[in-house]
Amino acid sequence: MLIYLRVLKESFNFAINALRNNKLRTFLSLLGVTIGIFSIIGVLAAVDSLDKEIKGSLSSLDNSTIILMRFSFGPSEIPQWKRQQFPDVSYEEFQYLDRNLPDVEAATYALNVPRETIKFEEKTVSSVDIGAVTDDYYQIESLQLAEGRFFNEAESVSGSPVVILGHEIAQNLFGDSDPLGKQVRMYGRKFSVIGVLKKEGAGLFGGSKDTSAFLPVNVVRRIFGDNNKSTFPQIIIKPTDDVDNAEFIAVLTQQLRNFRGLKPDEVSNFFVNQLQGFADLIDNITGQMNFIGLIISGFSLLVGGFGIANIMFVSVKERTNLIGIQKSLGAKNKFILFQFLFEAVILAVIGGLIGLFLVWVISLLASQFTGDFEFVLSPWNMFLGTAVSAVIGLISGIIPAISASKLDPVEAIRTGM
């Protein structure tokens, strides 16, 4: 064991001397490994960060949550021309399912409507995301209120002119004053502020509730009408925890088919999208992105491997005389082999660590410039980068190491002279 530690120490010293004595040559040789590791770990870190951000934005929703609408989250066997003829889900269908569907913990009818401007006295906030929903949305999304309350069922059904503001909207309109009970204007009408959400923070893709306002869906339906193409309705259903999801979806599908009067041989003209399916789709996309990124980065590592092999062949040639002396003094082939192998691995790991350092620096800078979006350089990715560097060094150094170990000591000393 001690002999291997000694070989490792000597190889480390040789690698450091190579860096010191031939700075430019060694730097150019290690550049390929550095770029390769930077590319691989950069891609993995970016995709991991993207995956974390997307799933974080969905974390307030349970994976069993179901979204009924005329679009599908994923690919569908139904032709596009036929899907385009599907009707939107209606408020009456929501009421029917809410009354008749068993094992429902919460259900809400939501309208996606264009952004709106909110005014309070002389202050104005533009491009506010409007959430037109029923009262159960509070339970489905697990919204957190900083003050006030969410609207109740009576206010939802009657379409009362009340509003819950996101943290940033409330700050811009009211500053430090109490917003509860104040009247704001939107859609040419007055709405009473009854609640303010806790600060959430924005993500890379926006979507933060800090810049949103929530209204009873029926007041928005009166403004836009039920056949307005600028609105996009959906029914969101959260089943109870103990329910069998496949059975629940089957019952839900049949209930809605019955309400729409579809015959047994007719295709369902709606989509039952489960949030878990969307999460699986995200995993599939990020997996493909990782695969493509690794293939592209692999070419950089291939160049890096050639660079390490080149510097090791040069090192063998420069130290031919020393190899001959070592072998004449009794050094075995295995000792010489490991000496050069360790040196190649150490050089490659140094290049990899430089690449990891660059990824870390760029991830810090990127996190600063993108606000609340955080680039993640996980310990696993750091370990992976170091391990890949070592493997590249091992593969690149094996041939030079074998050639060094097989040198004839007499010929080696004579060549060195």
From TrEMBL:
<comment type="similarity">
    <text>Belongs to the ABC-4 integral membrane protein family.</text>
</comment>
<dbReference type="InterPro" id="IPR025857">
    <property type="entry name" value="MacB_PCD"/>
</dbReference>
<dbReference type="Pfam" id="PF12704">
    <property type="entry name" value="MacB_PCD"/>
</dbReference>
<feature type="transmembrane region" description="Helical">
    <location>
        <begin position="335"/>
        <end position="362"/>
    </location>
</feature>
<feature type="domain" description="ABC3 transporter permease C-terminal">
    <location>
        <begin position="295"/>
        <end position="409"/>
    </location>
</feature>
<keyword id="KW-0472">Membrane</keyword>
<keyword id="KW-0812">Transmembrane</keyword>
<feature type="domain" description="MacB-like periplasmic core">
    <location>
        <begin position="26"/>
        <end position="254"/>
    </location>
</feature>
<dbReference type="InterPro" id="IPR003838">
    <property type="entry name" value="ABC3_permease_C"/>
</dbReference>
<dbReference type="Pfam" id="PF02687">
    <property type="entry name" value="FtsX"/>
</dbReference>
<feature type="transmembrane region" description="Helical">
    <location>
        <begin position="27"/>
        <end position="47"/>
    </location>
</feature>
<keyword id="KW-1133">Transmembrane helix</keyword>
<protein>
    <submittedName>
        <fullName>ABC transporter permease</fullName>
    </submittedName>
</protein>
<keyword id="KW-1003">Cell membrane</keyword>
<feature type="transmembrane region" description="Helical">
    <location>
        <begin position="291"/>
        <end position="314"/>
    </location>
</feature>
<dbReference type="InterPro" id="IPR050250">
    <property type="entry name" value="Macrolide_Exporter_MacB"/>
</dbReference>
<feature type="transmembrane region" description="Helical">
    <location>
        <begin position="382"/>
        <end position="404"/>
    </location>
</feature>
